[in-house]
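pinned: reference chain
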Amino acid sequence: MNYKNIIVQKKDSLAQITINRPKKLNALNKITINELSLAFKELEEDSNIRVIILTGSGEKAFVAGADISEFADFSVKEGTSLSKSGHEILFDYVENLSTPVIAAINGFALGGGLELAMSCHFRIASDNARMGLPEVSLGVIPGYGGTQRLPQLVGKGKAMEMIMTAGMISAKDAKECGLVNHITTQEELLPFAEGLAIKIMKNSKLAISAAIRAVNANFEDGTNGFNVEIDEFGECFGTEDFIEGTSAFLEKRKPNFK
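pinned: its structure tokens
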């Protein structure tokens, strides 16, 4: 599929989505959100794809926020619909993909950009990256999951400070508070992400998908994550990956997951 604002590349079982609006610092507009939604669905349905890396074009920004001009004159009803639609088609969707998604934050990740990175399963950042949720400086709050996912990752107090001050934090601060897992140079960012992807791809795709569902269940209202873990654990015993993994361990060889 041809996209206007994103680039999708596939190499063997690894896919990379690059948000490509460098003149706008890769800001999220309606078209970009819709294209990202379609791209993630396409890759999720491709049984050959084992890991997805999400990044931004250029060296300045992952995503520097949302395109404010698109919603500056919205009504209450329109604002509510904007947030709900974004959750459904992109942010919640990415979080619940069975295919692991690594956010490679190559610069500014602000507002909706940071919310998109937080929807990914984990994050790495270049040392020039800056992250924040500046929405209250515009008279609004984060509307794509920021008030929920940020406290989950960094704790309530740190999240409250970041949201209420509308300030940015450095890549170093982001790593210290658990927002990102690793920091690299700009040049090493994508190779490092690919190295992590290769490690992931050596393991059972079915088991990884089950693990994602179990971990996410802990953050779902009304869901007992322990019960989900028990069920997912049991289901693994009925898969070919379990047979191959345990057989390989007992036979002292590397597993060959199909």
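why pinned: The two ends are 27 Å apart (CA to CA). The chain has a mean pLDDT of 96.
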